[in-house]
From TrEMBL:
Keywords: DNA-binding, Transcription, Transcription regulation. CDD domains: HTH_LacI, PBP1_CcpB-like. Residues 2-56 form the HTH lacI-type domain. InterPro entries: HTH_LacI, Lambda_DNA-bd_dom_sf, Peripla_BP/Lac1_sug-bd_dom, Peripla_BP_I. It comes from the Bacteria. The keyword Methyltransferase does not apply. It comes from Listeria fleischmannii 1991. This is Putative LacI family transcriptional regulator. PANTHER family: CATABOLITE CONTROL PROTEIN B, LACI-RELATED TRANSCRIPTIONAL REPRESSOR. One of its GO terms (molecular function) is transcription cis-regulatory region binding. SMART domains: HTH_LACI.
């Protein structure tokens, strides 16, 4: 395979000029650029992109660390990153971890070895302290509030949002409220925030009123069955951790002859298309905007902390 020296010799230019053409440097005379490109075409030269990136010290690629690539919550965040990255001519690489800490650290090492220019972490398995150690190698933006030096964040005030959701239900007269979460509170800041919000609003322990590991319509049906049948409770409202989970609760309720919202109220989350179809009241965290903001912070190369406002969207399920 031909190398840069051979191209330079045949084009009658310096190796530096060939390098500048390869890297789209603006200060190359048009006739020289044309000669180099013609020789490259004749020799069927394909540049070694890894070597070029190493020489430039950048890849024009940002990595997004997320647990799953098939979940509506993370879809919205990723779509925001993709839209913003496209406008700046950046590539986006997804790094799914399944919440495995070692897998996540492998992706952090890719920042250290300059395989990506920076990382956006939609949800993490490792501690923020460990993640912040890698910020010396490039920009890292996390999706939660943090005061750690070196880390930027585009985040939602989860505690405030969850309290608003629970207060909304309480103000409408609902007292026997149950709710669903994703990961267990021992490892999920989001779940811890939601449980604390419940306790602050209803002034009782949250443990008996919640169920973890809920992500899908089927999980919503399972959650409703768990509270109504296994625990023998009589909830008058549910606060689901996603509109798909809320849809599952609605399916169960209708199968059992319950009317929504007369017999059971349902509050969803994230304003997904299924929620619009089912006319679910939902609390939108504006996740796409969070993804766009995270990329903007990464691209600025500044340490910034930006909070994304949430929005309660009232429809017919409450």
């Amino acid at each position: 395979m031909p190398n840069i020296k051979e191209i330079a010799k045949q084009a009658g230019v310096s190796v530096t000029t060939v390098s500048r053409v390869l890297n789209n440097h603006p200060y190359v005379a048009s006739d020289k650029r044309e000669r180099v490109q013609k020789v490259m075409q004749e020799l069927d030269y394909i540049p070694n992109r890894s070597a070029t990136n190493l020489a430039l010290g950048k890849t024009n690629t940002v990595g997004v660390i997320l647990p799953y690539n098939d979940h509506p919550w993370f879809d919205k965040v990723v779509n925001g990153v993709l839209d913003a990255a496209f406008r700046k001519k950046y590539s986006v690489t997804l790094f799914p971890t399944g919440y495995d800490a070692k897998t996540e650290e492998k992706y952090l090492m890719m920042l250290k070895t300059k395989q990506v220019d920076g990382l956006i972490i939609a949800s993490r398995a490792n501690t923020l302290e460990l993640i912040s150690d890698y910020a010396q190698y490039g920009p890292i933006v996390v999706s939660e509030e943090t005061s750690l030096p070196g880390l930027s964040s585009a985040y939602i005030d989860r505690s405030k949002a969850y309290q608003e959701g629970f207060r909304f239900l309480k103000e409408r007269g609902y007292r026997n409220v149950c709710f669903t979460n994703g990961r267990a509170r021992s490892i999920s800041p989001s779940t811890r925030s939601k449980m604390k919000a419940f306790e602050a609003v209803f002034e009782k322990k949250a443990t008996n009123f919640t169920l973890n590991d809920c992500y899908t319509v089927q999980d919503g049906m399972r959650a409703a069955e768990y509270f109504f049948e296994e625990k023998g409770m009589k909830p008058d409202a549910f606060y689901a951790n996603g509109d798909e989970v809320a849809a599952g609760i609605m399916v169960y309720a209708r199968q059992k002859g319950m009317r929504v919202p007369k017999d059971i109220a349902i509050l969803g989350q994230e304003n997904l298309p299924i929620g619009l179809v089912l006319e679910l009241t939902t609390l939108d965290h504006h996740l796409k905007k969070m993804g766009e903001t995270a990329f903007s912070i990464f691209h600025s190369k500044e340490i910034r902390k930006e909070r994304i406002a949430h929005e309660l969207i009232i429809r017919k399920s409450v």
